[in-house]
Amino acid sequence: MNDILVRHLGRVDYAPTFAAMQAFTLARDAATADELWLCEHPPVFTQGLSGKPEHLLADVGIPVVHIDRGGQITYHGPGQVLAYLLLDLRRRNLKVRELVTRIEQAVIDLLAGYGIRAERKAGAPGVYADGCKIAALGLRVKNGCCYHGVALNVAMDLAPYRAINPCGYAGLSVTQLADLCITPDAERDIGNVGAALAAQLKAKLE
Questions:
Q1: Which of 135, 147, 190, 204 has its CA at a distance of 20 to 30 angstroms from the CA of residue 101?
Q2: Taking Cα atoms as reference points, which of 31, 9, 5, 30 lies closest to residue 20?
Q3: Known active-site residue 146
Q4: How far is the CA of 81 from the CAs of 27, 45, 96, 188, 192, in angstroms?
Q5: Helix ranges, 54-181 (H)
Q6: How many CA atoms lie within 13 A of 34 on its CB side?
């Protein structure tokens, strides 16, 4: 029962994916297997429960979706891997802080395989490389089960980040795997990176 079923969704719109995560979590019971959804999204800003509108600095024509995870505003777009974790935390005997640490470590270990030294920052969930944010993390827990997850920048247009204070931090720089590693393009293809990220997450969580 501790196996995690990985689903490859491809490029999907954000709003219906968010609704599907909520519906999955609401409908699950003690026998429901945990799942990990891998996907990309068309350009979208997502604003967390405590999100402040002033962190959207400019209207660049990208929709803003208000959602129920913690945190401020972030950006999702093509070339970014989303790993959504739909887990029964009680069954796995996991506290939220430990889950966050394991997710961050999965990303850190993944990036190490590409020769990228990454790290955490105290009080600022996510993963950072060269002082820049490379992965954003946000979760929602209901009835002992979580959803949402982690977004890893792989090979994307970073320009939309200039329209926000990423995760609520003014002046926070962002980066991506493609700008930091010298492996062949095929090895950092979005699908390959997503599969590698799923393997790291499963290893940390199963």
A1: 190
A2: 9
A3: no
A4: 26, 15, 22, 11, 10
A5: 89-92, 96-112, 177-180
A6: 23
Please report, for the domain that includes residue 121, its CATH number.
Answer: 3.30.930.10
How do residues 6-32 score in pLDDT, each as one tens digit?
999 999 999 999 999 999 999 999 999
* 92 Rama sector, left if φ>0, alpha if ψ -120 to 50, beta otherwise: alpha
List, as own/partner pairs, every contact residues 14-22 make where C-beta atoms lie below 8 angstroms and the sequence separation is at least 24, other chains included: 14/41, 14/42, 14/44, 14/46, 14/65, 14/76, 15/65, 17/41, 17/84, 18/65, 18/67, 21/84, 21/86, 21/147, 21/148, 22/68, 22/147
Tens of pLDDT, residue by residue, the chain (206 residues): 579 999 999 999 999 999 999 999 999 999 999 999 999 999 999 998 888 889 999 999 999 999 999 888 999 999 999 999 999 999 999 999 999 999 999 999 999 999 999 999 988 889 999 999 999 999 999 999 999 999 999 999 999 999 998 878 888 899 999 999 877 676 678 999 999 999 999 999 98
Among residues 39, 145, 167, 181, the one annotated as catalytic is: 167
Domain count, the chain: 1
Furthest-apart CA atoms within the chain: distance in Å: 46
How far apart CA 13 and CA 65 sit, in angstroms, is 11
Instruction: Tell me which residue of 21, 43, 28, 33 sits closest to 139, measured CA to CA.
Output: 21
Give residue 131's domain range. Answer: 4-205
